[in-house]
Structure to design on (224 residues):
């Protein structure tokens, strides 16, 4: 199936050029199974053959990235944070999530939203997902668009230039993208485990002093 998808991507890029690159990258933001690395590397190869300009391919990919991110942003904004809170109140116990956890996550995003959007646009797997909390929190559109554009420009330029330099060996960029994605797949669960460990261990340690102080108070009352 992946080979068939790659062949389809090749046909779209070669037949539509800049427009095809922009459309494919936009759709990739909404449907991650489309491999953005393949699209971008292929765009670089097409430019190396003289069927397009390197800068033009990077700009087309970046326009597609921004449009796709904005679509996901508006979908999340339409869904709304209140619906998420309702889900957490009703089903959060399944994941041991509370509204307090949601408050902390929202506070973190509100504080670091610009950095989060900028950096996550350069990270596979979460490149598109970062648009969801941004939309839910209704992050101001101007900085969201700015940092999405900058982060997407960096990511797109890396792979388009790689495809341009590799030429007919443009598909060799895929294994490196896979290694990078593997690192992220390992790093994300590790970060989640650290968060959970801190949450549960921190909760237990804070509960012990409270229990100790309660016992002391009881003994004082008895002595009186």
């Amino acid at each position: 199936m992946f080979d068939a998808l790659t062949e389809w991507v090749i046909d779209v890029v070669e037949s539509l050029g800049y427009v095809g690159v922009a459309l494919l990258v936009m759709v990739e933001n909404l449907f991650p199974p489309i491999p953005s690395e393949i699209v971008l590397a292929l765009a670089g190869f097409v430019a190396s053959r003289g069927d397009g300009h390197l800068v033009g391919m990077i700009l087309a990919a970046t326009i597609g990235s921004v449009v796709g991110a904005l679509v996901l942003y508006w979908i999340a904004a339409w869904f709304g944070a209140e619906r998420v809170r309702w889900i957490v109140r009703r089903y959060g116990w399944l994941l041991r999530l509370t509204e307090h956890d949601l408050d902390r996550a929202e506070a973190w995003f509100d504080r670091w939203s610009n950095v989060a959007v900028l950096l996550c646009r350069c990270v596979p797997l979460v490149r598109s997902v970062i648009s969801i909390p941004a939309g839910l929190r209704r992050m101001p559109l101007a900085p969201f668009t700015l940092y999405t554009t900058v982060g997407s420009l960096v990511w797109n330029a890396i792979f388009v230039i790689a495809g341009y330099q590799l030429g007919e060996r443009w598909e060799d960029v895929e294994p490196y993208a896979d290694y990078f994605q593997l690192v992220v797949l390992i790093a994300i669960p590790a970060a989640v485990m650290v968060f959970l460990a801190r949450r549960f261990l921190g909760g237990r340690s804070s509960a012990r002093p409270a229990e100790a102080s309660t016992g002391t108070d009881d003994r004082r009352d008895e002595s009186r």
Remarks:
- The CA atoms of residues 142 and 148 lie 10 Å apart.
- DSSP finds nine helices and no strands in the chain.
